[in-house]
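Why does residue order matter? Because the sequence determines the fold. Keep that principle in mind as you read this record.
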Amino acid sequence: MANSGVAIYPGSFDPITNGHVDLVNRTLRVFEKVVVAIATNPDKDRSLFSVEERLQMIEEVFADTSGRVSAVSFQGLLVDYAERQGATVVIRGLRAISDFEYEFQMAMMNHRLKPKLETFFMMTGESEFYTSSRLVKEVVSLGGNVAGLVPDNVLKKLQDKFKV
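Structure:
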C-alpha cells in the first residue's frame, strides 16, 4: 500500500530503459507519487535525445498511471529541487557493486546538505541487471536489436535516431 509521500527518481534517462520503468513501477507500490527528474547541465550535455524528447518518452511510458508519475527536468542541486517538489525520498537503482560506491557517496553528500531527504536504494530486477542507457545506445548504433530492453516507443525513437 502506497503512502502519501513523493519520491524523486533523478537521472539522465537518455533513453529510459525497461530497468528504469521497473524501478518506477516498484516505487509506486510504496509511494503515492514518483517524479522522474532529468538532471540537466547545458555545459556538459552530450545526450542523444533532447530533454524535450526524453520528457515526452517518459510521459508516454507512464501515461496510464493516473498522474502518479510525472516527468520533469531540473538544473542545480538535486536536494534543492527535491525540496521544492515536496519529495521526502530519492530513489536510486543499483545494478552492481560498482554502482554502490558512487551512489553511496552521492547519498551521503545529499544527506549532509538536506538531512531530512532520505535515499532509497533499489536493486534492479534480474532481467534488467545488465541494461544501461549507454549500452542500449551503443548496441543500436551498431545495428543491434534492443527490443525488450526499452519500451516500444523508445525503441522506435532509437531506430529513427540511428536510421535502423
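The first strand starts at residue 3 and ends at 11.
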